Amino acid sequence: RELLTTTEAAARAGVHPRTLLRWLKEGVLPGSLTAGGHWRLSPSALDAFLAAHRRAGGQPVRAAPPVQNVLIVDDEPAHAQALARLVELLAPGCQVHHAQDALRGSLLLGVLLPDVAFVDLGLPQLGGTDLIRCVREVASLSPVRFVVVSGYVSSERIEEIEQLGVGRDHVLAKPVTPQQIARVLAELLPAIVNDASRPGEAG
């Protein structure tokens, strides 16, 4: 039989795709990575894993909440570092990763399946809009939520980005403010955002 994607395997197991990805990364569920950085696993291996857990506890499979991953795709090191520090301050329970271009960003998106990805539109070679468009065509990456950051945000660009499933509230103009990042993280990562460290809203 054909190998399962993480989305297909998660549906078969009745768990969230990020839970299944955690099992794969921890090595408790056997799987393999493709050349493009995507996990694949056999149906028989998944069924054996689920059966073993159910025999052991007699309960549906449960796993600890997966680590929240945030990816920053930005070719400006200073901006990326400042944004990373801000995200780590506001959401101390997450892990922040950085890619300097769309190619590295696409690879990390496939490997990490991040909860949130901050993408700069002005990336070299392949732009941020094209990166998001490519990712939207991959079913296993559908859970990723994007926040667009750009030095120039026109109404035409916003409309184009909205067509890719990125809300208008998630399109930020550089330089971004701590209040903007706090608002976005509070919406997208409410379980781990540290309210005490959230900067106060202006006005």
Folded structure, characterized:
This protein has 8 helices and 7 strands, in the order ααββαβαβαβαβαβα. The chain is of the alpha/beta class and 203 residues long. It has a 5-stranded parallel sheet with strand order 4-3-5-6-7, with helices on both faces. Strands 1-2 form a two-stranded antiparallel sheet. Helix 4 links the parallel strand 3 and strand 4. Helix 4 (77-90) crosses helix 8 (178-188). It is globular, with a radius of gyration of 18 Å. Residues 194-203 have low confidence and may be disordered.
Q: How many strand segments?
A: 7
* Helix percentage: 40-55%
The SSE order reads HHEEHEHEHEHEHEH
Helix/sheet category: alpha/beta
Give the count of helical stretches.
Answer: 8
Classify the oligomer: single chain
- The average pLDDT score comes to 83
Strand order of the largest sheet: 4-3-5-6-7
Give unreliable regions as ranges.
194-203
Q: Into which percentage range does the β-strand content fall?
A: 5-15%
**Biggest sheet, in brief?**
5 strands, parallel
Radius of gyration: 18 Å
What is the CA-CA span between the terminal residues?
A: 60 Å
Principal-axis shape: globular
Question: Tags for this entry?
Answer:
7 strands, two-stranded antiparallel sheet, five-stranded parallel beta sheet, alpha/beta, 203 residues
Can you summarize this structure?
With 203 residues, the protein is α/β, with parallel strands linked by helices. Helix content is 42%, strand content 15%. The strands form two sheets. The chain has a five-stranded parallel β-sheet with strand order 4-3-5-6-7, with helices on both faces. A two-stranded antiparallel sheet has the order 1-2.
